[in-house]
């Protein structure tokens, strides 16, 4: 998921890591410091349009390294969330470094997430601009609920429950969609989808160049 253009992702007054509050946290997550940049898949590639496999082996070096690489790739691409199939890996995993509407920064990862939304009568839908690192350069208004919960596991197989409101709730819904083979384009009308793809065609090379410059600046 793309970061908001108001720069909210940089707010660092309060931080929750894996759903738990911490006193302080670096601007660049430690996972990103250890990671390597991977190529971000683009809408139209088959891996983005089919459900991902469950993670069945926890506590492995391979899973830990994938999470590290995803954090750095997300940072370089200026994202607020990133799913594993967006770096070409067919597993149910996403990472996030995302603010909510109260300025609280949420950082973490989750595997095999199950999304829970309020009952239809209790839902408050919010139309807000949404982008995607796999739809580079495009942003469209997408209705999402302003509250969401995901239940899953961390990389060591421990149970996780992550709750989000506002923009972070949007992120949780966006990334869970990825893992069932959907992008936000699937939630648009045909006309709006065409508009988003036109935006991507016009701006993707500029986005790719910016990512390459940022990676080079980090020596990656």
CATH topology label: Peptide Deformylase
- The average pLDDT is 94
Q: What is the correct CATH architecture?
A: Alpha-Beta Complex
The biggest sheet, with number of strands, parallel, antiparallel or mixed sense and barrel status, is: 7 strands, mixed
- Percentage beta strand: 25-35%
Q: What pattern of helices and strands is seen along the backbone?
A: EEHHEEEEEEEHH
**Could you name the ranges where pLDDT drops below 50 across 5 or more consecutive residues?**
7-12
Quote the distance from N terminus to C terminus.
Answer: 22 Å
Any idea how many domains? Answer: 1
Total E-strand runs: 9
Q: Given the helix and strand composition, which structural class is it? A: alpha+beta
Compute the number of helices: 4
Give me the Rg, rounded: 16 Å
- The CATH superfamily turns out to be Peptide deformylase
CATH class: Alpha Beta
The coarse silhouette is globular
- What share of residues is helical? 25-40%
Primary descriptors:
two-stranded antiparallel sheet; seven-stranded mixed beta sheet; 9 strands; alpha+beta; 220 residues; 29% helix; 4 helices; Peptide Deformylase; 26% strand
Can you put this structure into words, describing what you see?
The chain has 220 residues and is α+β, with helices and mostly antiparallel strands. It has one domain (8-217): Alpha-Beta Complex (Peptide Deformylase), CATH 3.90.45.10. It has 4 helices and 9 strands, in the order E-E-H-H-E-E-E-E-E-E-E-H-H. The radius of gyration is 16 Å and the shape is globular.
């Amino acid at each position: 998921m793309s970061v908001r253009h108001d720069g909210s992702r940089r707010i660092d007054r309060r931080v929750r890591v894996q759903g738990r509050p911490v006193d302080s946290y670096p601007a660049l997550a430690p996972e990103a410091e250890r990671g390597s940049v991977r190529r971000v898949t683009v809408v139209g590639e088959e891996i983005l349009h089919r459900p991902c496999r469950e993670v069945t082996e926890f506590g492995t070096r391979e899973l830990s390294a994938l999470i590290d690489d995803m954090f750095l790739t997300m940072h370089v691409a200026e994202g607020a969330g990133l799913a594993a199939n967006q770096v070409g890996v067919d597993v149910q995993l996403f990472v996030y470094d995302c603010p909510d509407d109260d300025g609280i920064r949420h950082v973490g990862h989750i595997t095999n997430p199950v999304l829970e939304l309020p009952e239809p009568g209790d839902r408050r839908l919010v139309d807000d601009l949404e982008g995607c690192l796999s739809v580079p350069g495009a942003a469209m208004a997408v209705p999402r609920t302003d509250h969401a919960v995901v239940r899953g596991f961390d990389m060591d197989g421990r149970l996780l429950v992550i709750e989000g409101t506002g923009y972070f709730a949007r992120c949780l819904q966006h990334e869970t969609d990825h893992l069932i083979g959907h992008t936000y384009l699937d939630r648009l009308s045909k006309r709006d989808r065409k508009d988003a793809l036109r935006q991507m065609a016009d701006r993707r090379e500029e986005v790719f160049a910016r990512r390459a410059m940022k990676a080079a600046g980090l020596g990656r």
